[in-house]
Each structure stands twice: as C-alpha cells, then as structure tokens.
Amino acid sequence: MLNLKLNRKMAQLALLQRIELANPLLTKLRKVFGRYLFSKIFSKYFINVKEISKNYSVCMEKELITILPFLRHGQKILSIGSGLGGLEIGILNKFNETNITFLEKNYVSKKIKYGWDNDNKEGYNDLSLLKNLIEMNKISSDQFSIFDCDNGNLPIKKYNLVISLYSLDYHYDFNIYLDYLKKSTDENSFIIFDTIRHDYFKKIFNQVRIIKVDQNTVHKSKRIVCSIFK
Ligand SMILES: C[S@@+](CC[C@H](N)C(=O)[O-])C[C@H]1O[C@@H](n2cnc3c(N)ncnc32)[C@H](O)[C@@H]1O
Fold it and tell me: Is this prediction's pTM over 0.90?
C-alpha cells in the first residue's frame, strides 16, 4: 500500500490538484469564501496534513489499479500533468527498471478554476515539491526526469506508455501535445487520459477503449486508452 508522507506545502498542492481530498469543512469554506481565498489561505492553514496524506495515498493507489493492465517492468513512461506524482511513485515502487519522464507546470494559478482552459494557463504544481516527494520515497535519480512544459525543450524519446490523469484533454486541448505525442510514441505505445469527448479520439487513433467512467464528477469524464495514430 502507498503510504505517502506529505509536508504542509505538499498537502496544500495535493488538495488543489485533487479537490475531492477536501473534507466537508474545506468544501464549505471554498463555497462561501470563493476560490481565491481557498487557494491562498484555507488550503494552506485549514488542512489536516496527516488526513490529506492518507487520503491522497488511497486515491493514488485506486488510480494505479485502473491502469495496472497497461504496466510492465522496464517501461519508459511519460506522465503529463502528474501533480505531486503519487501515482508515479506507486508505479516506480511496483515495477522494476521503469523510467518516468514528468512534464508539468511550475506554478500555481491565483484562482484555480478547474474548467477547460483554452490558453492552457492554469497550473497547480511546484516542480521542486514534486522532486522532493519522489526523492523522499527513495526513487533513484536515474529512474525519473522532470521537465517544465512551458520551457519549450520537450524531451526526445520513445515512450511505451503515456499517462495523463485529469490533465490532458480534461483541462486543456489534447492537440497541444498532438505532434509531440506522434513523435514520441510508436504502434505499440498506449496513451491513457481522461476526457469528456471520447468519440472525438476515434478520428485520431485506430484504437480507443474506455477503461473508467466518472459519473459522479461535474465533468462526467471517461478514462480512455488510445493506440496507433491514424
Ligand atoms: C487536476 S491536476 C491532476 C494531477 C494528477 N494527474 C492527479 O490525477 O492527481 C492537473 C495537473 O495538470 C497540470 N497541467 C496543466 N497544464 C499542463 C500542461 N500543458 N502540461 C503538463 N501538465 C499540465 C497542472 O499543473 C496540474 O498539476
């Protein structure tokens, strides 16, 4: 079982990335005082760090189960919008000789909207905290690398698997990464992400399979596995 020990800053980030980690008090504070005060004040000072660490670990463990059939030892994985990387730490713990490239933002927006962002300006991460959490979990430095997606120089590599939970095509357009993903995958690669327009991807890929349905969220998204670009 994952047992991630977050510090206060990490717990605040985890909460901003996964609003379902909020307890009823925090949910109410967000509703009454709005997203700005929630992002700046309540998510920082009104949280129970141990409770968020435990809930985040359970949440990431459950996510790991949804993608388990696509994981193997020794894979090269690209993670787009990993957040704090709890899922990826779970993968690196379970699968030997796996290497994960993280592509993420390195800032937290003033007022997180959790909607669709055409300009892709919304970010909720801190790459130094992502790196800290990975290192705290004894992952060796040759097993991962972290890239700021706004820096332009995306890594040139072929990946067996691309994962992007509640990020790519959930908060911003898949097409931002279309050319890059075409170059960095091949006919044996799988690309897994959450979307509300799964049918659209039948035009882009030869194979599109639904592996999870989220009916309880506002977005009512589906998790799909795609392979072979048309
Ligand atoms: C809702 S969070 C989900 C985090 C994590 N995947 C999870 O399931 O807990 C979305 C993440 O996508 C990141 N993000 C936004 N735009 C991005 C981009 N163009 N490339 C990579 N990551 C991005 C945000 O910074 C944020 O950490």
Answer: yes
